[in-house]
Amino acid sequence: MALTTQQLIQWKQQGRQIVALTAWDYAIAQLLDLAGVDLILVGDSMAVVLGYETTLPITLEEMLYHAKAVRRGVKRALIVVDLPFLTYQESIQQAINSAGRALKEAGAQAVKLEGGYPAMIETITRLVQAGIPVMGHVGLTPQSVHQIGLRQQGKTETTRERILQEAIALEQAGVFSIVLEHIPADLALQITQKLSIPTIGIGAGPHCDGQVLVTSDVIGLSEKHPPFAKVYTNLRDTITKAVQDYSVEVRERKFPE
Ligand code: KIV
Ligand code: NA
User: Fold this and answer.
1) Residue 170 pLDDT more than 90?
2) Catalytic annotation on 61?
3) Mutation pick for ligand 1 pocket among 44, 111, 150 (CB with most ligand atoms within 8 Å)
């Protein structure tokens, strides 16, 4: 049975952790779904598997193309699609149009937008009113890399308070969940206790209602990964070895037999 945003909110009340990972194509999405991942994010972090330096260049068309492939591989997990940089910040109309395409064309169940500043709260309020489930994202927001870098956020009293208030405003705007990225664990705990919707942490310590990582980091496909990522297997080495073995066998006429 396909999971819903309402179920994930219930899991928070029941103390059940939410398992989330990113996916960018049919094969990866299918493996994640069959392994029981609850929430699959078509994150703009797929920039790394497309060879971009940051998440900024990804277009809505690229996101939708990949989201459609993910959709075809998933039966159970909730699919959330990131709206890429400058496809929702311009106006409420632009955000409704972009989010609408993610739901109508790609079959996503929700979209994720970065930021909890007043104009974004207004935009998200309108999306939710229009019937579009929204996931928030505060702390380190990689689409603002040229302003804030990729450093941990919420280290000072002022920025801690700002992030907490953004999370509260996002809940009031109607988001079903919020990603907390690269903030101190005690701040993530404070936000998690304050909100009735689930927090999904990445580099935010163990006290969130769920965790998300970038799958290419988890499986060792990324060239580099952030300090908080855990690499569970090294696919770069595995693939290199397989390709080298194949190359040797072809050159030595051992394959095919
Ligand atoms: O794009 C992404 O992978 C994300 C996660 C890090 C939350 O936004
Ligand atoms: Na993202």
Assistant:
1) yes
2) no
3) 44
Cα-to-centroid distance, 257 and ligand 1 (Å): 45
Cβ-contact 63, 107 below 8 angstroms: no
- Cβ neighbours, 10 Å, residue 140: 25
Domains defined along the chain, listed by start: 5-251 (3.20.20.60)
Half-sphere exposure of 170 (CA within 13 A, CB side): 34
Read off the pTM.
0.98
> Residue 13 is encoded by which pair of tokens?
């009340």
pLDDT band at 103 (very low <50, low <70, confident <90, very high): very high
Nearest to 204 by CA among 141, 157, 158, 145: 141
CA distance 98 to 84: 9
Cα distance between residue 184 and residue 29, in whole Å: 30
Residue 29 CA to ligand 2 centre (angstroms)? 16
Which of 137, 215, 228 is the best mutation target for the ligand 1 pocket, counting ligand atoms within 8 Å of the beta carbon and taking the most? 137
CB-based burial label for 4 (10 Å; 0-12, 13-18, 19+):
middle
**Which of these is catalytic: 181, 249, 252, 257?**
181
Do the interacting molecules here have an ipTM over 0.90? yes
Residue with the two structure tokens 């770069």: 236
